[in-house]
């Protein structure tokens, strides 16, 4: 016992001795590149004898790559008999001692400073007078599309370009694109134990440089992610290749007789497919003086898909070995799959992007809150909550020219908010005739356009089908996905020929016709980061009935008959009864209070859903990222 009778620190980080204060549970900052085996408690032999003034202790900054200490990770208490941890790591894989490591950057990457540019993964945008931004994307409309993500990437770059930014979009070349020409530029990337040569195709449209990375692994039948047999087995390689190419293209390839360069760039990385960019820049380029003023912004469109692969695959990504902690992840015992000896360990690509990006953006303010909760965080809620101070929700917009009922070539009758009653009635009659439904204008025509899967809540619509039939409503559904739901639609159409029509598959003209003709659009999604169909529906005077989650909560406002405000109806109880309550209110208003229903329609049509507002919000995020120092150095 020391003369001052002060307790010493034990191995658990608490004090011991006769005068020790009650034990306080302390938490330690976890850096993305530090293994749990490297942690030390204050007072251990490995760290200086420093006692922090707060409840959090952190090792000396020199022992970490990140230049600024992030907020502490949330930890959960576990029984003492369970030594497993959500973020516990196993033996550190050895990174291949080959080209591209932090100690041997290819000379081609070391370029002189150039005028400020901002870069964004999936598309690159640059302030012509100040900065520029590049962006990397896995799909982009109209060249490749499987969902709303492609629509966003097809519209947002143009919105940024119209505001005076220099924008580049980088995406895989999945097919033969007639409007994209071969630049003739080739370079090699070392991945998965070998060199892979990639080409660069370019298309200039709407003030945006659309760049497509050419490699044999992208030219396949099916969608960008897989085919009828499931996801492609080499997706980790395909999108790691895309990330490495996206970092090289601004340095090497000239567009309009100049390269984008490496100064004041902002890379916008969309979902896990581009989430390695925030790791590649600080681990392989910044130590050599390249991209020192560049920043990365990770855009989360759907947290459910994270790019999880076995831990041994880290060796194939050609990243420095001391950055393994950025990708490390461990599932709890009840969720573990794969080899027993792995104990649920894996490399999580999206987690790496969240850990290392300078800023994190979600596609709606509501989703920005949901991802920090256990219900919506998909096991990354603790990490996202620790980075909440750089987390921003920016609501998506839509292409106001493509989705314009006044000049839509896909619908039989064009209309505006001045004559929408006559126009919608004509479109409704035309769709009923085309689908062989009874032409009854007094019957509410209810539509659904989207994937037939668990997320979109198509099963809830099947549960509400008896009520729809009994209350004399017509239902039109367009979509593909789960085979069981597809068969359920076919059975429903067979049993109710005068009430239900099912189009299994996807057809762009039919989606426009349904959006214009229907009185009500259903969106009972279990979770919806933003959602675009409700914005399309409101643009065409179709009233959305949606589950109050994510972006749906931000865009669909419940109608107030006293103030005459609102754009639709929502429900909080995620069940068939909750859906029927909101749908019943909408159908009752349609039949008994047509003037009020028309007010809701007009409110939606007058709503500004353009990309200009979203582009302005993104510019704020870019400015914040450039103002702050690099999160990882």
Task: Put the structure in a nutshell.
The protein has 633 residues and is of the alpha/beta class. The protein has helices spanning 148-162, 235-252, 277-285, 349-356, 365-370, 381-386, 420-434, 458-470, 483-495, 508-517, 533-539, 550-555, 576-592, 594-605, 611-627; strands at 8-9, 15-16, 27-28, 56-57, 123-126, 132-136, 167-172, 181-191, 194-205, 208-214, 226-227, 230-231, 266-270, 295-300, 308-309, 328-330, 345-348, 359-362, 391-393, 445-449, 474-479, 500-504, 520-523, 543-547, 569-571. Strands 5, 6, 7, 8, 9, 10, 13, 14, 18 and 19 form a 10-stranded mixed sheet that branches. Strands 22-21-20-23-24-25 form a 6-stranded parallel sheet, with helices on both faces. The chain has a 3-stranded antiparallel sheet with strand order 15-17-16.
Features:
633 residues, alpha/beta, ten-stranded mixed β-sheet, six-stranded parallel β-sheet, 15 helices, globular, disordered N terminus
Describe this structure in words.
The protein has 633 residues and is of the alpha/beta class. Helices cover 27% and strands 18% of the residues. The chain has helices spanning 148-162, 235-252, 277-285, 349-356, 365-370, 381-386, 420-434, 458-470, 483-495, 508-517, 533-539, 550-555, 576-592, 594-605, 611-627; strands at residues 8-9, 15-16, 27-28, 56-57, 123-126, 132-136, 167-172, 181-191, 194-205, 208-214, 226-227, 230-231, 266-270, 295-300, 308-309, 328-330, 345-348, 359-362, 391-393, 445-449, 474-479, 500-504, 520-523, 543-547, 569-571. The strands form six sheets. Strands 5, 6, 7, 8, 9, 10, 13, 14, 18 and 19 form a ten-stranded mixed beta sheet that branches. A six-stranded parallel beta sheet has the order 22-21-20-23-24-25, with helices on both faces. Strands 15-17-16 form a three-stranded antiparallel beta sheet. A hairpin with a 2-residue loop joins strand 9 (194-205) and strand 10 (208-214). Residues 1-130 have low confidence and may be disordered.
């Amino acid at each position: 016992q020391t003369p001052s009778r002060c307790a010493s620190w034990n191995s658990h980080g608490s004090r011991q001795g006769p005068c020790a204060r009650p034990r306080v549970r302390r938490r330690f900052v976890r850096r993305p590149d530090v293994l749990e085996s490297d942690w030390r408690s204050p007072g251990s032999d490995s760290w200086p004898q420093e006692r922090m003034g707060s409840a959090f202790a952190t090792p000396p900054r020199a022992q970490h790559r990140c230049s600024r200490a992030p907020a502490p990770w949330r930890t959960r208490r576990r029984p003492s008999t369970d030594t497993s941890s959500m973020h516990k790591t196993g033996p550190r894989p050895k990174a291949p001692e080959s080209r591209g490591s932090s100690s041997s950057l290819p000379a081609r990457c070391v370029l002189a400073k150039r005028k400020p540019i901002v870069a964004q993964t999936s598309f690159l945008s640059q302030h012509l007078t100040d900065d520029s931004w590049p962006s990397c994307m896995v799909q982009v409309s109209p060249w490749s599309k499987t969902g709303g993500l492609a629509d966003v990437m097809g519209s947002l770059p143009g919105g940024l370009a119209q505001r005076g930014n220099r924008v580049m979009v980088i995406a895989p070349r999945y097919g033969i694109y007639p409007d994209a020409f071969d630049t003739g530029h080739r370079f090699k990337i070392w991945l998965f134990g070998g060199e892979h040569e990639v080409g660069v195709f370019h298309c200039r449209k709407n003030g945006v440089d659309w760049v497509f990375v050419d490699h044999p692994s992208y030219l396949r039948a099916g969608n960008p992610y897989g085919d009828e047999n499931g996801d492609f087995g080499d997706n980790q390689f395909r999108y790691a290749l895309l990330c490495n190419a996206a970092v090289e293209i601004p340095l090497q390839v000239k567009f309009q007789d100049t390269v984008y360069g490496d100064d004041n760039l902002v890379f916008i990385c969309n979902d896990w497919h581009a989430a390695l960019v925030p790791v590649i820049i600080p681990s392989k380029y910044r130590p050599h003086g390249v991209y020192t003023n560049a920043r990365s912004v990770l855009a989360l469109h759907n947290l459910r898909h994270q790019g999880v692969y076995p831990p041994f695959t880290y060796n194939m990504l050609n990243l420095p070995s001391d950055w393994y902690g950025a990708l490390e992840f461990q599932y709890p015992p009840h969720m573990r799959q794969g080899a027993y000896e792995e104990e649920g360990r894996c490399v999580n690509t999206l987690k790496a992007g969240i850990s290392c990006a300078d800023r994190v953006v979600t596609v709606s303010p509501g989703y920005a809150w949901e991802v920090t909760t256990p219900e919506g965080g998909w096991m990354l809620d603790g990490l996202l909550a620790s980075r909440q101070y750089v987390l921003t929700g920016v609501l998506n917009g839509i292409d106001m020219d493509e989705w314009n009922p006044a000049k839509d070539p896909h619908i039989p009758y064009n209309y505006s908010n001045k004559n929408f009653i006559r126009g919608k009635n004509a479109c409704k009659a035309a769709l009923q005739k085309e689908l062989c439904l009874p032409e009854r204008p007094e019957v509410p025509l209810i539509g659904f356009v989207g994937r037939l899967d668990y997320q979109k809540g198509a099963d809830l619509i099947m549960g509400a089908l008896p009520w729809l039939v009994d209350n004399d409503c017509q239902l039109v559904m367009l979509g593909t996905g789960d085979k069981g739901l597809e068969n359920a639609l076919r059975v429903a159409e067979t049993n109710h020929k005068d009430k239900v029509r099912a189009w299994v598959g996807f057809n762009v003209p039919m989606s426009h016709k349904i959006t214009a003709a229907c009185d009500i659009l259903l969106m009972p999604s279990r979770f919806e980061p933003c959602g675009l169909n409700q914005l399309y529906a409101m643009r065409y005077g179709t009233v959305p009935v949606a589950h109050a989650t994510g972006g749906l909560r931000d865009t669909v406002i419940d109608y107030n008959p006293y103030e005459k405000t609102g754009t639709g109806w929502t429900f909080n109880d995620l069940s068939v009864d909750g859906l029927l309550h909101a749908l019943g209110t909408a159908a009752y208003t349609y039949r008994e209070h047509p003037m009020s229903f028309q007010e809701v329609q007009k409110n939606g049509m007058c709503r500004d859903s353009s990309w200009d507002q979203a582009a302005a919000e993104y510019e704020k995020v870019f400015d914040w990222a450039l103002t702050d120092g690099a999160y990882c150095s």
